[in-house]
Amino acid sequence: MRDHLGRPIVAVTGLGLVTPLGFGVARNWAALLAGTSGIRRITRFPTDHLRTTIAGTVDLPEEAEGPPLTATPRVMRMAEMVAEEALAQAGLGGDGRFPGPLMLGMPPVEVEWPHRLALAAKLAPAAARYPALAGAAGGWDALYAQAAFATVGEHLAARFGTEGAPIALTTACATGASAIQLGVEAIQRGEASAALAIGADGTVQPEALIRFSLLSALSTRNDDPAGASRPFEKHRAGFVMSEGAACLVLESLEHATARGAAILGVLRGCGEKSDSFHRTRSNPDGSAVIRAMRNAIEDAGLTPGDISYVNAHGTGTPENDKMENLAMRAVFGADAPPISSNKSMIGHTLSASGAIEAAFSLLAIRDQILPPTINHAEPDPAITLDVVPNVARPAAVRHVLSNSFGFGGQNVCLVLSGEPA
């Protein structure tokens, strides 16, 4: 039950999913294979005068008769939901105790406009300037607790009884994959027999939308929400912001086998590489992206020819898609495996994307089918890959490479397999 480097093999025994396609693994996977888009017009806040008015939003049950949650409570709630589903499948945590640490990938925390408006309501209109707002926030303990980055992890650790200090991290769009990597490495080092890895993001809110819009990173195809996310397609013009969460229950294969758990797959390899080239752009030579992919494959004890399918980062921005094409050709040469982008259907779930896409990768192995890249109306001559256009495809899927490339050159790749060896 050791890998080629003598480390404990890391198995996945539970999955949980929430995306704009719905709640739960079964509903999400069925919608993904059907090529369903979860992108819609934003109704959570006014979008007058905004360049982008669409997103992949998750409407939580408790919002049906109340105001929308702000980002941090939204992250906490979705993380709870996916952990509950994953732990139930794994058959762990029923007694409120989990035999390992929590690794939580989530976005940075900030004070949002509902908080500012609530503070301003305490003041006369002429006094509602920043120094007065800061003063009015004094003693608002609930806001402090919500704005403290560690709060979500501490709440989840108490809720599910994980061991040790919970780790909360953010590595831009690689965050969800980083959380999984930390869990895998803790088990491989023998520090834990299991780990709860969660990626969650709920930052479809005005300021985040405006920031990405100012970077010219977002699609403005507002009249066609379902067709707005177009990874690898000739007329792609930016990504679509989205939100969601995923949880993977990780265990050493020895621990999982000893308790008779069903094995959903194994996390066979992890690779990372940063390029430190620019705050938002990757180095044009693709060196860090290429190295991250190679590192993951080598860490898994495989060769590029062993990879059956690549779950793309595939955001739909012109630069990112060309970069991923370049990296694929550098790593795989002329015999590159099929690659497809879940983001064509669920949008870019940012901090959650690496975990969500790892879950979908395991499901592709389980069912021996490749999810499609939808909205692929006209191929781009610069993209020379098989992107599984528009329709899911049965295939022999043994090993999957899942790519996550983040702002600031933070790149993490995972290799997932259906069997230990």
From TrEMBL:
The biological pathway it contributes to is: Lipid metabolism; fatty acid biosynthesis
Tell me the superkingdom of the source: Bacteria
**In what residue span(s) does the Ketosynthase family 3 (KS3) domain sit?**
7-418
Pfam families, from UniProt?
ketoacyl-synt, Ketoacyl-synt_C
Tell me the InterPro entries matching this sequence. Answer: Beta-ketoacyl_synthase (IPR000794), Ketoacyl_synth_C (IPR014031), Ketoacyl_synth_N (IPR014030), PKS_Beta-ketoAc_synthase_dom (IPR020841), Thiolase-like (IPR016039)
- List, alphabetically, the Gene3D superfamilies matched: 3.40.47.10
Presence of the UniProt keyword Transferase in the record: yes
The entry's keywords: Transferase
The text of the family note is: Belongs to the thiolase-like superfamily. Beta-ketoacyl-ACP synthases family.
Query: Which NCBIfam families does the protein's record reference?
Result: PRK06501.1
Q: What is this protein called?
A: Beta-ketoacyl-ACP synthase
Could you tell me which species this protein originates from?
A: Falsiroseomonas selenitidurans
The organism's taxonomy opens as:
Bacteria, Pseudomonadati, Pseudomonadota, Alphaproteobacteria, Acetobacterales
